[in-house]
């Protein structure tokens, strides 16, 4: 990145005085080794002390070919192995095996331009894929937000419907309790009225018996006692209190009523329908095809064919994975053969099998250590 910035500054350098950039009106002072804009050349570089300075237009400076720093000659060749430009003296000093692979500057420039174009096209393809992924993810986020609002609305509507059904059933059950209470209360009050009319008669006859027993002598008692006993028997038979057949309990089938009122929301049919809808939605999203093997292979080859350090790392990692797969397959075959031999010998403890088992253990440990690294 630093080199790219230096190249940009060398092609269109800023003015050394005012930092202004103007490609068409820039000059270069070969004596000072600095760039000058038109305004600074006319004003600040017109002093007597700068009169001997060699000031040329930037276009002339840029068109001059670069020279070798060691020999002062123009670059004419390029070494792909060393990634260096060579003058005629540098080219003459190279060994023959390296010299045969050197190309001229124009050819090297064309080859480098092609490689750069391939890398740029790969980056552009990746940029397109990333842009499509970003657009798709943003669309999914918008859809996720809409689905969240829709699900919230559905849940609120669902709960509101259940609350209305429960409130209606609640009012019905309260009215049923009140009806049972009023019905049994009327029965109890009518029985109280009947028993209330009998109570004074009973008290009167009890007082009569007490007074007769205390005031009558033996002769009067024996004379009047039979008639009094007959009267008491008649009163006792007529006013025998009857126990109420109505219980005081008030019971309603509220659990069944509430369950029946909530049947359209949380009943078995509603739950099974909701589960089928969820399963259909899951199948719809699961049916989205993943990236094909051809696309994955193309992306993998694009990464492995590059010249960057990341591509080099990918190639090294690919070779390591390939070696580990070969080791794993070899151990897998050996384990299969050992298993067949053990099955054939029916667990016979023979020295060759034990030795092969120990060798497989060591190879497995080595493979495990390689995977951990």
UniProtKB/TrEMBL annotation:
UniProt key word Zinc: yes
Any coiled-coil regions, as ranges: 314-341
Record keywords, A-Z: Coiled coil, Metal-binding, Zinc, Zinc-finger
GO MF annotation list: Hsp70 protein binding; transmembrane transporter binding; zinc ion binding
Entry annotated with the keyword Coiled coil: yes
One Gene Ontology term, aspect cellular component: perinuclear region of cytoplasm
Stored InterPro entries: RNF207, Znf_B-box
Protein name as catalogued: B box-type domain-containing protein
Domain B box-type: 10-58
